[in-house]
Design a protein that fits this description.
The protein is of the alpha/beta class and 340 residues long. It contains 6 helices and 17 strands. The protein folds into 2 domains: 242 residues, QueA-like (3-Layer(aba) Sandwich), CATH 3.40.1780.10; 78 residues, Beta Barrel (Thrombin, subunit H). A 9-stranded mixed beta sheet has the order 2-1-17-16-14-3-12-13-15. It has a 6-stranded antiparallel beta barrel with strand order 5-6-7-10-9-8. Helix 5 packs across helix 6.
């Protein structure tokens, strides 16, 4: 299986630069795998497709303002630091640009309240750093950091909360679980009133999810690990849903990776708090999910490979062709697809 099998041509103007004013008014393509049918809907119509007793699984991670700009002590050149993963208190795995001049022992200052020291350099060039600060770290980060929007978004985001889900709770992500961005409290309430179970898991999204696949052979790609948590209460609801013959539908590829990582071969999901580096691509046999809500992903990405594993590569590539023809909005602030 070649990485190039997952390429599609996307006009640049279809890359969404800003979120819609009303989250729930984004477009939603509905792909029925069994009937091989595609429908064009609005996101708020999702209520019509989820049945009483079904369970929606959402990722409640919260994006931190993970991009910081500072300078080396005594130098004026701007240094960008992107926080990827908290390792222990005050120690983080990061991307530093430009990296050539940032060797072990380098001190980078951001303000009189915050600085860091580079304490290690990994094989792929990422830096392990240790923060020094005066005050409460999260408050300082909220003051000095900016949202780490993907590089294909060049417009300024006026409202930082638009890169958060309305149900975000647990800080730690370097990127948003974008399928969840379409939900409003109104839609969530309608789903609950219909008898749909809403279950929350946490997976802190790292940039490894979006890292380009640089090998020709898909099976040779290695995923970075990401930390996730699923509680006993969540597992009980999910297991009961399956027992009653109802559907478990994942909101986003991040929730999907939690569900598939925590489910044993016997089809039972168990509480977990650990790292996962699961890589799902065509040929993978799903153990838990029956459906997936997802945005439209970059060509040749691990995310388009995951959705292709669920709906087959041919159906997904055809759906993407239709999405381009119908001028859907793509990527993080774009429209979505419901695969059932």
């Amino acid at each position: 299986m070649k990485t190039s099998d997952f390429y599609y041509d996307l006009p640049h103007e279809l890359i969404a630069q800003t979120p819609l004013e009303n989250r729930q008014k984004s477009r939603m393509m509905v792909l029925d795998r069994n009937k091989d049918k595609v429908e064009h809907k609005i996101f708020e119509d999702i209520v019509d497709y989820i049945n009483p007793g079904d369970t929606l699984v959402l990722n409640d991670t919260k994006v931190i303002p993970a991009r910081l700009y500072g300078h080396r002590v005594g130098k004026e050149e701007k240094i960008e630091v992107l926080l990827l993963k908290e390792l222990t208190e005050d120690r983080w795995q990061t991307l530093v640009k430009p990296g050539k001049k940032c060797k072990i022992g380098t001190i980078i200052e951001f303000s009189d309240k915050l600085s860091l020291e580079i304490i290690d350099i990994l094989e792929d060039g990422q830096r392990i750093i240790k923060f020094k600060y005066d005050g409460i770290f999260n408050e300082i980060l909220d003051e000095l950091g900016t949202m780490p929007l993907p590089p294909y978004i060049t417009e300024k985001l006026d409202d930082q909360d638009r890169y958060q889900t309305v149900y975000c709770k647990n800080r730690g992500s370097a990127a948003a679980p974008t399928a969840g961005l379409h939900f409003t409290k109104e839609v969530l309430k309608k789903l609950e009133e219909k008898g749909v179970n809403l279950v929350y898991v946490t997976l802190h999204v790292g940039l490894g999810t979006f890292r380009p696949v640089k090998v020709d052979d898909v099976t040779k790609h290695e995923m970075h690990s990401e930390y996730y948590v699923i509680t006993k209460e969540a597992c009980d609801i999910i297991n009961n849903t399956k027992k009653e013959g109802k559907r478990v539908i994942s909101v986003g590829t991040t929730s999907c990776r939690v569900l598939e990582s925590a489910t044993a071969d016997d089809g039972i999901i168990y509480p977990r708090a650990e790292e996962t580096s699961i890589f799902i691509y065509p040929g993978y046999k799903f153990k838990m999910i029956d459906g997936l809500l997802t945005n439209f992903h970059l060509p040749e990405s691990t995310l388009i490979m995951l959705v292709s594993a669920l709906a087959t590569k041919d159906k997904i590539m055809e759906a993407y062709k239709i999405a381009v023809e119908e001028k859907y909005r793509f990527f993080s602030f774009g429209d979505c697809m419901l695969i059932l």
